[in-house]
């Protein structure tokens, strides 16, 4: 054998060896793909051919006609598959639109499937976490106990600042559906309602205890005329406090009820500010120095609500400014363009520490409880002001320094 022939033979041998080594893999992959692709088609075709062969009429039909019929059947099968796919896509869309989280768990509590809300609520990853046991992902002990024993009460668990309620739904084949609902907002409202009821009860119980004690004393004991009058005056003060509390509660309930639309009259603010100022001066009984700077200004909204808000600010200025202090009221416009209406009440009173300022408009929030009560406060004044301002699409601005007075500002859109 010559040298080139030997080299060619060796080359061919190597190529053959490589081919020999690769061929089974390529063949296996090709066969697998071909098998998967043709399996469905073959099954449908086989069913169609068997049907046709069993059919004595078909046996006598021309070959071309039988082929056409088989094609027709295959087409119908394909359309069925498409319809199923569409149905699955639609169901997926529905489950993803549900705001509650849904997990389908197998017997070993592994996640078989879950909807989008479940992924988002529990910060899971569809690719990473599918197939993993749920107890590796939701680790709250109450939930684990509930998964092990569904007769336990359904747990409500707070994790990372959010509260979830869980519910397990068994199914016939041993799989289970775990539902999770984000109840953070519901819990917050429930807590607010409970706190509110507790606060109102407490606010009413205190004056009621005083009044009932004094009535007993007046009934049971022989008193001098002076003592009787003193006790009666205290009863009048306490009932006045209770009346104011009930009135403020009713006002707040009306303002918080979104169903009650705001009046939309054009309101001239100057007379309202002047009236509120006169009331504040009467309350002060010349204990403070007042100054006023009042320009004409109109806004749209409810005169009675605005009167109540401005009155509250001026009354507070009197109540939280020691005798000899100053109170200045200003009605004007802001510098910005377009300008807005400003009602500003500035006092030289006790002031408020910075940490209290963000909470002042909460119902029953008081910096100094005893001072508020002594001066007939209900703890609802600034909550009312905040709601009035919001309903008029305005803002309440508060600036204060402890010991150096406060400024409360209502900023409202011009009519
Ligand atoms: P209250 O009836 O207690 O005055 P408000 O809702 O009107 O209730 O005010 C809430 C709290 O804000 C008051 O208890 C008081 O501590 C504080 N506050 C309100 N206005 C002033 C002010 N002008 N100066 C100092 N503190 C004030």
List the helices and strands and how they pair.
Blueprint: H1 3-54, H2 56-59, H3 63-97, E1 101-105, E2 111-114, H4 116-121, H5 126-129, H6 141-148, E3 156-159, E4 162-170, E5 176-182, H7 184-220, H8 225-256, E6 265-268, H9 269-284, E7 289-294, E8 298-301, H10 303-319, E9 326-333, E10 341-347, H11 369-374, H12 381-391, E11 395-400, E12 406-412
Parallel strand pairs: 7-9
Antiparallel strand pairs: 1-2, 1-5, 3-4, 4-5, 6-8, 9-10, 10-12, 11-12
Bound molecules: adenosine-5'-diphosphate (ADP).
What would you note in describing this structure?
This protein has 415 residues and is an alpha+beta fold. The chain has four domains: 3-97, no CATH class; 101-182, Beta-Lactamase; 188-258, Signal transduction histidine kinase, dimerisation/phosphotransfer (DHp) domain (Helix Hairpins, Orthogonal Bundle), CATH 1.10.287; 261-415, Histidine kinase-like ATPase, C-terminal domain (Heat Shock Protein 90, 2-Layer Sandwich). 55% of the residues lie in helices and 17% in strands. The chain has helices spanning 3-54, 56-59, 63-97, 116-121, 126-129, 141-148, 184-220, 225-256, 269-284, 303-319, 369-374, 381-391, and strands spanning 101-105, 111-114, 156-159, 162-170, 176-182, 265-268, 289-294, 298-301, 326-333, 341-347, 395-400, 406-412. A five-stranded antiparallel sheet has the order 2-1-5-4-3. Strands 7-9-10-12-11 form a five-stranded mixed sheet, with helices on one face. Strands 6-8 form a two-stranded antiparallel ribbon. Strand 4 and strand 5 (176-182) form a beta hairpin. Helix 10 (303-319) runs antiparallel to helix 12 (381-391). It starts with a helix and ends with a strand. 20% of the residues are buried. Bound molecules: adenosine-5'-diphosphate. Adenosine-5'-diphosphate (ADP) binds at residues 312, 316-317, 320, 347, 349-350, 352, 360, 365-368, 372, 377-383, 406.
